[in-house]
Amino acid sequence: MKVITYNILDGFEHAPERKLECASWFKNQAPDIVFLNELNGFTQDSLKDFANSWGHANTILLEGRSRYLIGITSNSPITDVETYFENLQGHGVISCKSNGMTLINTHLNPHDIEKRHHDVEFILEKIKTFDSDRENILFGGDLNSFHYDEKSHYADDASDLKSFYLYRSKLDEKFKNLTDDELDFMVSKRLADSSMVDLLSQHNDTFVTSFPTKLGKEKQEQIKVFVDSGINTDRMSGRIDYFWANKKLADKCTACVIPRDPSVEIISDHYPIIAEFELN
Fold this sequence. Notes:
Layout: E1 2-7, H1 16-29, E2 33-37, H2 44-52, E3 58-62, E4 70-74, E5 79-84, E6 93-98, E7 101-107, H3 113-128, E8 137-142, H4 161-171, E9 178-179, E10 182-183, H5 186-193, E11 197-198, H6 199-203, H7 214-220, H8 224-229, E12 241-245, H9 247-250, E13 253-257, H10 262-267, E14 273-277
Parallel strand pairs: 1-2, 7-8
Antiparallel strand pairs: 1-14, 2-4, 3-4, 5-6, 6-7, 8-12, 9-10, 11-12, 13-14
């Protein structure tokens, strides 16, 4: 069983070549389930057409208040669908079942720590409603949050992310990505404390970033706020995309990687995550 989560960057707006490359990449990967973030401009029908290109006839698209839509596709029927966006502070939550797994996809708020904390608490309460002894629970997506076990990679001598967040918060008070001028790691801490397992950490001893790709770095160098900040964009990388699983499913995970093949360098500003499982 192969599952992929991928933030595809603005729904390929004004870049049909990226959409074609992404469809081809998915077809070559032959996943059983795909979590998608930033399906900007997609409709229920266009997502079905997109997913059909890699053999997935079953799709869900959450259309809420945000233009940054999220979705799930599968090669098997999708059941028990629940979608949430009211009273949430990010881009919504999809919960469903497919291929013997209980799935939760989200895209947390990129600008505000407290809003991310709010939504992850909602998700943790949702996870509690599942039978963790019997169900294979997989939670994923772009959490816009760093992992607490990887703090050293964001220290001042290794990263300029904190400096950039300080600069941006002074320009616009809506950007609240620091707590007492420090990076926040609470989302991952709360998930780990709830006995969810970070699958990438389980299968990798080295630090691997999920953004930015080659395309992402090129875009950073063109964005005024990055240029004006004087920040070194080579020191702006991190891991904010995840797959978390309950212990029952984590024990069945045989691999979890962030690929670095040429295609994923140009499809999006994020790298995808691939997790593989041997289900009974």
